[in-house]
Amino acid sequence: SPSAAAGASGRAMTVPALRRRTAQRARVLVGTVLALVLTAVGTGCAATLPAPPPAEVAPDADCLADDVLAALQGGGGPRLSGRPGPAAGSVPAGFEAVRAVECRWDFSASPEALRVLEVTHQGDLRQLLRALGRPSVRPRPGQPCPAMAELGPELFLVAADGRAVRVAWPHDECGFRLPDVARELAALPVTGERVLDRPLR
Q1: I want to staple 99 with a disulfide (CB 3.0 to 4.6 A). Which of 90, 122, 169, 200 is the partner?
Q2: What's the gap between Cα 51 and its chain centre?
Q3: Distance between CA 63 and CA 57 in Å, rounded?
Q4: What is residue 107's DSSP assignment?
Q5: What CA–CA distances, in Å, run from 133 to 4, 9, 130?
């Protein structure tokens, strides 16, 4: 009958549309699953570590402290004592830094002394603080890493009253420092430099 033909024609018209809709939904579902898998894999590759404990607030920034000199030498060098320094940590809550003091190893020292170049930076520290607040990346089992050591500067943040905290640099899964801190530090104006010697005798 005409009505039956119309019904059949109506059903025939909707089948392609249903197929297209089904195929579209399948593509969306596959895309969603793939995105979730990639997100999970990416998260697993970049698992982060919790922030280190807050750094101890010291009376001042001391680039010649025992712990600082040992860190600048990669844990080697002569054994020092009598001038311990604060352990590196995260920036304590409420600590308002107005300048950054960078301690760089100076290889021109004589055999009788250890020499450090102290570089003071001032300016807007917000980007530097943001870089220091980045989490370190957790090492992965079997992670291939270069067989090399990284000897970088040590860094203090200093408040207006002179009190200072020695801050830890965030690192990647191989233990190398993330480049953000060095980049933001280099962008800050240098307002002072001085050479410091620590006699060995």
Answers
A1: 122
A2: 10
A3: 15
A4: T
A5: 72, 66, 5
Token pair 């980049």 is found at 183
Q: Which residues pair with 106 in a beta bridge?
A: 115
Rounded Cα–Cα distance for residues 152 and 69 (Å): 11
Concatenated DSSP letters for 177-192?
BPHHHHHHHHHSPEEE
What are the contacts of 47-53 at 24+ separation with CB within 8 A?
47/137, 47/138, 47/140, 48/135, 48/136, 48/137, 48/138, 49/135, 49/136, 49/137, 49/138, 50/135, 51/90, 51/133, 51/135, 52/88, 52/89, 52/90, 52/168, 53/89, 53/90
CA dihedral 166, 69, 105, 129 (to 10 degrees): -10
Indicate the DSSP class of residue 97.
E
- Residue 6 pLDDT: 42
Tokens of 35: 């995105």
Residues 63-95 pLDDT 10s: 999 999 989 988 766 677 778 888 999 999 999
Q: In which element (H, E) is residue 6 found?
A: helix 2-45
Q: Answer yes or no: pTM beyond 0.85.
A: no
